[in-house]
Design a protein that fits this description.
The structure is a homodimer.
Chain A (H helix, E strand, L loop, with lengths): L3 E10 L2 E4 L1 H13 L2 H8 L3 H14 L5 E5 L5 E5 L1 H24 L7
Antiparallel strand pairs in A: 1-2, 3-4
Chain A binds a DNA duplex through helix 2, helix 3, strand 3 and strand 4.
InterPro entries (chains A, B): Molybdate_resp_trans_reg (IPR051815), WH-like_DNA-bd_sf (IPR036388), WH_DNA-bd_sf (IPR036390)
Organism (chains A, B): Hyunsoonleella aestuarii
Protein name (chains A, B): Winged helix-turn-helix domain-containing protein
Chain lengths: 112, 112
DNA sequence: TTTCGTTATATCCAATCAAATATAACGAAT
DNA sequence: ATTCGTTATATTTGATTGGATATAACGAAA
């Protein structure tokens, strides 16, 4: 049984985490459900945690990543901005490339 | 001010963490000081944490990474094995390559 | 103006994690 | 035998984290 190489990448802004794997999952769930509370339920995390993550994302980003509305039809909701979608796309691509890169590096430890 | 990409890589064996950045730092300090307690002090971590890390490393590795001795001249000590040194070398190289790789990926977010 | 489901926030409690402390076991040297 | 500094381990305390709960604010629609 050989060793495996694992990795985590994330994007920072002024030493604050902007996007990591968990945050991207949350943003994708918001995009699918249209609300933060439904996204939290779909990910089986508490609303509190989801809200804290989203708040941190929007505070770290240069431009809004979601538009959140309170009240009104359906009680309100959250929507990804175009900017948010482009951030997710960039993260996913870099992350995928990183995995592929590390796969190539496996040869450096297969003899150990 | 632009975003930054950060990363962490680690090597796993049977779903146990074998080597990460912290563990590599500890092993290098052991190599320099010849003892686990001195290594812990030099890294400003508790002996307990250092011991737990080293124990986990040696339990996850296929072959011993350190040889630990109790009692005797100087009270005992810990020494890196050749195998441990080769693991560190491989980790460092892969990690360095990963940083360089992610530097190249920066162009994918510099417009965001 | 009442209803509704949501965002936003505070509070409390449990659980997990880290630090600090204490102590035994060890073996070469004296 | 005693000393010494180390490895190895348990215990306790404190800090941080996360979950659960409660509640206010909101605004469109009925």
């Amino acid at each position: 049984m050989s060793y495996k190489i694992k990795s985590r990448i994330w994007i920072e802004s002024e030493d604050n985490v902007l996007l990591g794997e968990g945050r991207v999952h949350l943003l994708k769930a918001i995009d699918e459900t249209g609300s933060l509370s439904k996204a939290a339920k779909s990910l089986n995390i508490s609303y509190k945690k989801a809200w804290q993550l989203l708040d941190s994302v929007n505070k770290s980003a240069k431009k809004p990543v979601t538009i959140n509305s309170i009240g009104g039809k359906g009680g309100g909701g959250a929507q990804l901005t175009k900017y948010g979608k482009s951030l997710i796309k960039a993260f996913d691509e870099i992350n995928k490339n990183c995995w592929a890169f590390l796969d190539e590096q496996l040869s450096k430890i297969e003899h150990l």
